[in-house]
Design goal:
mainly alpha; globular
């Protein structure tokens, strides 16, 4: 089942690094929603966790390098989600796939809200930052 329908008008924030990471996130979430194979689900959940760690590290770096005023709140949201993902990954790897599936099915709601609010605010900041020439926008 496709969980996130990619909509450029809704999901693109206008910063290439962020947009490509968001598209990859969407692909992994959708693959998780489609697979019925427990071993593939477990593997994809690890891939989602690793991807999300890299995704958040990139955004944290961009926020820190450019002095983004919302850095602390945005970083705290990243930490909260990663803590939750790590906990759920432990359950998934132990065989509790229903727990993992419930989490994955809720990700589109979280992703839409996070992208619409925190990531869009960061993108506006990055496009206006003096360093904007070094970002692919």
């Amino acid at each position: 089942m496709t969980l996130i329908e990619w909509e450029e008008g809704r999901h693109l924030v206008g910063v290439d690094e962020m947009d490509s990471v968001h598209q990859e996130f969407t692909l992994i979430v959708n693959r998780l929603g489609e697979t019925q194979d427990p071993s593939i689900f477990k593997s994809l959940f690890i891939q989602l966790l690793e991807h999300t760690q890299e995704h958040f590290a990139l955004e944290d770096q961009l926020m820190e390098e450019t002095g983004f005023r919302g850095f602390e709140d945005h970083r705290e949201e990243h930490e909260r989600v990663l803590k939750q993902m790590n906990y759920i990954n432990e359950k998934v790897q132990a065989g509790n796939l229903d727990f993992g599936r419930a989490f994955v099915e809720d990700l589109p709601r979280w992703f839409d809200l996070h992208a619409d609010t925190m990531d869009n605010a960061l993108a506006v900041h990055l496009k206006a930052a003096p360093e904007a020439d070094s970002f692919a926008v």
